[in-house]
Design brief:
Largest sheet: 13 strands, parallel
Distance between the termini: 69 Å
GO cellular component, one term: cytoplasm
Strand order of the largest sheet: 1-2-3-4-5-6-7-8-9-10-11-12-13
Number of helices: 21
Organism: Columbina picui (Picui ground-dove)
Structural class: alpha/beta
Family: Belongs to the PRAME family. LRRC14 subfamily.
InterPro entries: LRR_dom_sf, LRRC14/PRAME
Strand content: 5-15%
Helix content: 40-55%
Number of strands: 13
Protein name: Leucine-rich repeat-containing protein 14B
């Protein structure tokens, strides 16, 4: 893929392409050329050169996002390349920066920022091997512990112990890497490389372990907290978490499914929900909130009204919201700031069409991403949907999988979507006429793939032709049957699958035991 490169960058590529020569020559290279050489080495996947550049880094900071992003010398953004060769070379180079430099007193590096790396579905690196967030967490923790062992066992220059480098990282912890990360965090004060957790994601982890490790991360610095799959956090645990730990800088919070369930609410639970709302209100930086698959009927106002900062992102998918909830959202001070909204799993056309369109109208000046999956949007609702989306001229992403729409309705909708100037990504459902007659929605996983694939491909081609005719080749249209790509789930799906099988077996065993007791 051709991208704009300066003569300087082309020269840098030529220089690093001969790895042996480049490594020998680093000592005579001007300090201000290191960032240029780093990006050129990353583009060409020259692992050994990357290692040596980082090992001898002469500047005060090392920011991966800035180094790999669009620069004057090379417009191509490489921050989405999680190339295993490059990233491993980078991290081992950082370890060796502490150990191997002949003159520790000349070292200026104070901050390493790894948070600008973006995990995406399609990788363009030659090696095709990625190092995701979980693996980066694992490797950095391992290197920190190895460094400590080496420093304890070896006679090092006293100046080595004076090195202190903050390494900003998005940690991703599961049962499998928990012990390693805990050890690295516990010994952080003794290690020259200081793990600074900016964002924390936890999947497949016992609640007790989550509570222990979150305290080790220094929550006062945390900007993003994601508690996602197989962490059994319920409302009472969330209240304990907020009462015992303060998150003054938290900007983004994702809670696991079934955190809230108002169906079994008591007066105590009502008070608990109010307390949680107050604690959210104290997080003055909070602008993103995801609480999918909870039962929050009639309680959205109680949860969100204490917030002092308007939300930019809200995910209340499958939360069984009623008309009062939707009316609150449509009239709240959040609505004029919402850039991303997920209302999946709600029967919008039947339950609250006018309130929903009022919400769309109020957020239209800023709304960039809208997700309406499994919302029972049918052919008869398409004109109404087009009317509601028309003011949303800044919309970049529209996802509406799982809705019973025909091929004809999809073509009508796509003709309109071509008119949204900022649109970049559309996720559309398999047309209902591609499924056997009598299919019911929402479609269960077993029936999801039982459609006429040949007919679907034909319809998909027609939809793409509509985009082509309107000169909108820039719009990506797809049907990810099992939902959008999640890099974290993709990376840990084996562990996640094993955990689900284990949980299923335990449930069957408990059921069998209870049957035996009653017989």
């Amino acid at each position: 893929r051709a991208t704009m490169k300066s003569l300087r960058f082309i020269s840098a590529e030529a220089f690093v392409s001969n790895a042996e020569f480049a490594r020998k020559s680093l000592s005579s290279i001007a300090h201000n050329l290191f960032p240029l050489l780093f990006k050129a080495s990353y583009l060409l996947e020259q692992g050994e050169v990357i290692h040596d550049l980082v090992e001898n880094w002469p500047l005060v900071d090392f920011n991966m996002g800035k180094l790999l992003g669009t620069t004057a010398d090379c417009q191509e953004d490489l921050s989405h390349r999680t190339c295993a060769v490059c990233l491993e070379s980078c991290l081992t180079g950082l370890r060796d920066y502490v150990l191997n430099h002949p003159s520790p007193y000349m070292k200026r590096l104070k901050v390493v920022d790894l948070t600008g790396i973006k995990d995406v579905e399609v990788q363009f690196c030659e090696c095709k091997k990625t190092m995701g967030r979980w693996a980066r967490t694992q490797l950095l923790s391992k290197l920190c512990l190895e460094l400590l062992v080496y420093l304890q066992q070896t006679q090092c220059n006293p100046g080595t112990f004076e090195i202190s480098i903050d390494v900003l990282i998005d940690l991703f912890v599961t049962e499998r890497n928990y012990e390693l990360v805990v050890q690295a965090l516990l010994k952080k004060c003794y290690c020259p490389l200081k793990i600074c957790c900016v964002s924390f994601r936890s999947d497949n982890l016992a609640l007790q372990k989550f509570f222990y490790i979150i305290k080790l991360t220094d929550p006062s610095l945390l900007r993003k907290l994601e508690i996602v799959h197989n962490v059994r956090l319920e409302m009472e645990h969330l209240e304990i978490l907020f009462n015992s730990i303060h998150f003054p800088l938290l900007m983004s919070l994702t809670l696991p499914a079934r955190t809230f369930n108002v169906r079994r609410f008591t007066a105590t639970d009502e008070q608990m929900l109010a307390n949680i709302g107050e604690k959210l209100g104290e997080m003055t930086q909070l602008t993103e909130l995801s609480i999918p698959f909870s039962v929050l009927t009639g309680r959205i106002q109680g949860l969100l009204s204490p917030l002092k900062t308007p939300l930019k992102k809200l995910d209340v998918s499958n939360c069984l919201l009623n008309h009062d909830d939707m009316a609150y959202l449509a009239n709240s001070f959040h609505v004029n700031h919402l850039e991303a909204l997920d209302l999946s799993g709600h029967d919008i056309p039947d339950l609250y069409p006018s309130t929903f369109f009022k919400l769309l109208s109020h957020s239209s000046s800023v709304l960039r991403s809208l997700t309406l999956e499994d919302c029972n949007i049918q052919d008869t609702h398409v004109n109404m949907l087009i009317l509601g989306l028309s003011p949303c001229q800044k919309l970049q992403e529209f996802k509406f999988l799982g809705n019973p729409l025909s091929s004809h309705a999809l073509k009508q909708l796509f003709t309109f979507l071509c008119e949204l100037p900022m649109l970049k990504n559309v996720e559309f459902p398999v047309p209902i006429d591609c499924y056997p007659i009598g299919i019911t929605y929402p479609i269960d996983d077993a029936s999801l793939c039982r459609f006429d694939h040949q007919k679907y491909e034909s319809v998909a081609e027609e939809l793409k032709f509509i985009l082509l005719q309107a000169n909108r080749e820039d719009v990506k249209a797809s049907t990810p049957l099992f939902g959008s790509y999640d890099a974290a789930v993709q990376e840990t799906n084996n562990e996640l699958g094993a955990y689900l099988i284990k949980s299923f077996k335990e449930a069957v065993e408990k059921f069998t035991t209870s049957l035996n007791k009653t017989s």
